[in-house]
Amino acid sequence: MTFDIQKCGSYTLVKVNADRLDTNNAPDLKSELVLVNNEGEKNIVLDLSNVTYCDSSGLRAVLVANRLCEDAIGTFILCGLQPDVENLVKISMLHTVLLITDTAEEAERLLEKKDNL
Q1: Helix (H, G, I), strand (E, B), or coil: what is residue 53?
Q2: Dist. CA 78–CA 99, nearest whole Å
Q3: Strand, coil or helix: what is 19?
């Protein structure tokens, strides 16, 4: 599975370059997110704009990222949800727990506002 990982000021952007996030590739994403966190990053934006299908393994990877950021007293933002993935997030009630934006740019603005508080 390929990812674009980009350090952007006060956060790291991780973009998933696959149309599926499932049992075949979610462990790779989890590992990558743990590596980013272990390098000292406490704010992570996960861009799923290319992902059209996600299963429970993918959701677990998202929750791992959220927990890592919370443990580091940082912020995790999920962005770019496609309709089917967004429905799964809502059915799972994760939209009540996660910060979700439409785009990575919107996530960046949200982090900037948080930094200025």
Answers
A1: strand
A2: 6
A3: coil
Which structure tokens are listed for 82? 């496609």
Q: Quote the tokens at residue 111.
A: 């982090």
The vertex-7 CA angle with 22 and 64, nearest 5°, equals 35
Sign of CA dihedral 53, 56, 59, 65: negative
| C-beta neighbour count of 5 within 10 angstroms | 14
From the first residue on, what is the mean pLDDT of each consecutive set of 10 residues in the chain (117 residues)?
87 96 95 95 97 96 96 96 96 95 95 82
Pick from 69, 60, 114, 66: nearest CA to 88: 60
Of 62, 54, 49, give the one whose Cα is nearest residue 103: 49
